[in-house]
């Protein structure tokens, strides 16, 4: 069935570097996308979202890019810090639904 | 933002026993709540939608007689894992929608270990 997937299961970066986490989705009916951060033993924490009528959205140190042509979503974290170490999930809300469907997740490891 | 709590945060039980997990919306009302299951190093999988005042809606492949859901009030949903087995060991997470479309608040999760 259609699903949201990720290219890289683990990403290791040095503190201060910029991080890019990628996500591929296959459901063209999805109209809303969210990035969540999950620290070990905790629930998902909202980071940033983007609607399908946008291609870029910026937050504090984070930027989400959406390329609907190739069904690709990315999360960019500027000046990555050790506290950013976590698993990052992209999720999609399929058209008409407000329940997020989660992708596989990428583990971000930030080395001091 | 709104806060969703879960209790207990972790539980260890013997095989064959039943375990109840609570999900509460602390400062808002939720007519709907969602239950997810997450195995180690895997993603969150939606198990069921809990509806206040009516039966829960289960996702395909989730046994409704094994995972009993009761939405007792506008702030409380419970998930009971009946006759638990080691393969039920997982991280169970609930969420509740906020006032705005697409807004979801997640609980901190409950780690269930079945011996």
Q: What oligomerization state is this entry in?
A: heterodimer
* Sheet of most strands of chain A: 6 strands, mixed
**Class per helix and strand makeup of chain A:** mainly beta
Quote the average pLDDT of chain B. 94
**Which percent range describes the beta-strand content of chain B?**
over 45%
Please tell me about this protein's structure.
The complex is a heterodimer of chains A (112) and B (115). Chain A has 112 residues and is mostly beta strands. In chain A, the strands form 2 sheets. In chain A, strands 2, 4, 5, 9, 10 and 11 form a 6-stranded mixed β-sheet that branches. In chain A, strands 1-3-8-7-6 form a 5-stranded antiparallel β-sheet, with no helix packed on it. Chain A contains no helices and 11 strands. The termini of chain A are far apart. The model of chain A has no long low-confidence stretch (mean pLDDT 90). In chain A, strand 9 and strand 10 form a beta hairpin. Chain B is mainly beta and 115 residues long. In chain B, strand 4 and strand 5 form a beta hairpin. In chain B, strands 2, 4, 5, 6, 9, 10 and 11 form a 7-stranded mixed β-sheet that branches. In chain B, strands 1-3-8-7 form a 4-stranded antiparallel β-sheet, with no helix packed on it.
